[in-house]
Amino acid sequence: MIGTLLFILAALTPFSDSGLICETPTRASVVSLYTDGRCDTTVCVLEKQSDFYRFYRRKEDLRSLVSLEIIPEFERAKLGDDGYYVLPNDFLFRFDSKTDQIYSLNSQPMPIAGALTPAGCWLEIVKGLQFENTISIVVKNGVYSLRRRFDFKDVNPYEDIIVDYYPLVGDDASYSGMGRTYRKYQLERGRIRPLKERVLNNEYLKYAAESPEIRIRQGWKPAPPTVLEQTPENEPKMKVAVTFRRVKDIIDSLKSVGVSKAEICLVGWNVRGHDGRWPTALPVEPSLGGEKDLRELIGYSQENGFQITCHTNSSDAYTISDRFSEDIIVKNPDGQFATGKQFWSGGRMYKTCLCQMNEIVSEVNSQVRELGFRGLHYIDVLSCEYHQPCYDKKHPHNRAEQARAAEAHLRDAAQKMGGAASEGPFDFVAGAEDYALYVTFDLKKDKWPSMASEYVPLWHIVYNGIILNNAASDLVNYTIKAPEIAMKAIEYGSRPSFYFYSSFKDDGNNWMGDEDLRCGNASELNSAVKAISRAWEQQRELGYLQYEFLDEHKMLSDYVSYSRWSDGSVVICNYSSKPYLYDNLVIEGNSYLLIK
Fold first, then answer.
1. Each residue's pLDDT tens digit, 407-422
2. Helices 244-256/522-542 angle, 10° precision
């Protein structure tokens, strides 16, 4: 239905005589759909500000609308034009589609998009009502347009619409320039601070920046679950994979192969393992060794120079939890409980209203601190999606309020444990997130949108040197994966990230890949620590780049990438099987070169 509406609106949109470029380079068509069924299209001239042009609508003027769509005329292009669009999920779209198509992105990791067209290069930043819009690429009759539609069907507009368009010229007229411009905006308004500044008074963050991340899934119940609504009587049995004492063996083995630093994150240490009974955390799972063994492990890890943290969850709830209550669950517009699309080990997953979870999260974080954990405490999911608005009449909360609550959960963890981590790249928590477990789930080409031409590190240009990150879910355990995947960790500046028992689901949905680290016997453990040691050696060479911005990225050929960092370092990755000559330096096939 949305796609049909977009094509209708496309037919209503006025074009200049050329069909592409308007006479005034800062005009936009505005399509308004009213609650009484009327639809009209007007043309507005964007308001000139200091170094950008602004589209603005007061929230009071939006309440008679079902939707409002902005179609900048200066961002149009036609089939065969040089240039591209870049969306905030890091996909680049060239103007080469010979068929009418639409690609839309609702949940956006950053509130930006970019266009390089014959009319110029532009970066747009949504600064008001960012959670209530969809960005779309529409191709019709050989003409491309980039459209941003704000929807109010189930939303009472709670902010003014503000979208600012920055013209980029010279060296900034590229996706690298788009990323640098947004980074500059975030830094200047105090939303983020460089990593090299923040580590000066945070020993835990400094340690994490200079060490690999090792997550250990210790135990879990069947996933997908065999029982949806679980009780202590019908709860499925938990699989024990790694006891607390076995984690000590992992630490000993890491030291034996020369890995002297790593941040270990325990997953499933809590009652009934990973996703067992959230938001209940305690007691510490007895079958793993209980609280006594856990406290001994934490002490042992820290005495041996390894930072140790754990995994909790504030966005999911299961009916088996003794804290489950309708007061903490998101309600849909019809009043029904909101549930996730997937079910996990605890059974049917109910979405929590993050604004209602503050007290529980603070208590769980305090429990984690009291156990002795220190480092970048991990709270699942918070940074990998927009959080659903809650329509409960007793506690209605919009998406912006839920986003602020997610950030508050991470800030509380950082205050108590020294730092905060979460699952994804969504930057409404950028001011509180120290590490993102993965920036994308879609690195491999078979996961790309059909219209996409390339995947580019737009997020990394913005946030490398600010938020520690693993570039993609596919790069977990990267040293045991194919070279064309593994080298992406070098190209994009990933923090080395590993996972024991990453592949655990019974349905085979292994979003981190089938290549796994295990420790069920001496041979498995030996292989695992050797994989980590290879990354440790790379980190000793490249680790200083964790503190630097990724300033420029481009492809030198179809198989050779160029990454330039803010200190002047350059990394060339050669994905071809043949040697590549760069500035009189030979880069062998399937290898990289660091030029300091």
1. 999 999 999 999 999 9
2. 50
Q: How far, in Å, are 30, 157, 354, 424 from residue 389 at the CA level?
A: 26, 13, 10, 19
Query: CB under 8 Å to 457, separation ≥6 — which residues?
Result: 90, 179, 471, 491, 492, 550, 553, 563
d(CA 139, CA 294): 57
Q: How many CB atoms lie within 10 A of CB 500?
A: 25
Which residue's entry shows tokens 């459209």? 147
Using alpha carbons, list the distances in angstroms from residue 539 to 25, 213, 216, 241, 543. Answer: 47, 12, 20, 28, 4
Which amino acid would we find at residue 36?
Answer: D
pLDDT given at position 593: 97
Using 70 as the pLDDT threshold, list the residues of the chain that sit under it: 1-24
What pLDDT, on a 0 to 100 scale, did the predictor assign at position 13? Answer: 40
Alpha carbon distance 297, 306 (integer Å): 11
**pLDDT confidence of residue 11:** 35
The CB density around residue 393, as the number of other CB atoms within 10 Å, is 8
Note whether 476 and 528 are within 8 A (CB).
Answer: no
Instruction: Write out the E strands in 131-258.
Output: 133-140, 143-151, 161-168, 213-217, 219-220, 239-240
In angstroms, rounded to a whole number, what is the distance separating the alpha carbons of residues 481 and 473?
12
Count of positions (residues) in the chain: 596
Position 374, amino acid: R
Global pTM?
0.94
